[in-house]
Design a protein that fits this description.
Layout: H1 11-25, H2 33-38, E1 40-47, E2 53-55, H3 56-67, E3 75-86, E4 89-98, E5 101-112, E6 115-125
Parallel strand pairs: 1-6
Antiparallel strand pairs: 1-2, 3-4, 4-5, 5-6
Length: 130
């Protein structure tokens, strides 16, 4: 594979990773800190839609708050794509819709089968019709 040959990942991989994305946005209320940490790499970080850089502690606090809040908006996704970056490493991209807010999202996932960890995540607010 050359640097510009980012082959599409198998559909099953894309579906699995989209299910895992919930962990990074809206974990279920019963999700524990330990379960959260199993799903992300030890040195995981992300750049939020605000442009700020967030560490694992901050992300866990936000996700835990969302999991137990009745005010958290429903979310949906569109334009889901998954590309192979390297063996067992995938780039997942999608449009996240939270009410009127739309953000383009990207996550780098490593693993296979049931053992997946997010290595990096970024969000960018969509400000026009794209």
């Amino acid at each position: 594979m050359t640097w510009h040959d980012l082959s599409a990942a198998p559909t099953a991989v894309r579906r699995t990773l989209m299910e895992r994305e919930r962990l990074l946005h809206f974990p279920l209320p019963e999700t524990t800190r330990d379960a959260f940490e199993v799903g992300v790499s030890e040195n995981y970080w992300e750049v939020g839609a605000s442009g700020g850089r967030f560490d694992l502690e901050t992300i866990w606090q936000v996700c835990a708050r969302r999991a137990h809040s009745e005010d958290t908006p429903l979310w949906a996704t569109e334009d889901e794509e998954c590309r192979v970056l390297a063996p067992d490493t995938y780039l997942l991209t999608y449009l996240l819709i939270q009410g009127e807010r739309r953000t383009r999202r990207v996550t780098i996932w490593r693993g296979a089968g049931q053992d997946w960890v997010a290595a990096y995540h970024q969000g960018t607010v969509v400000t026009g019709q794209w």
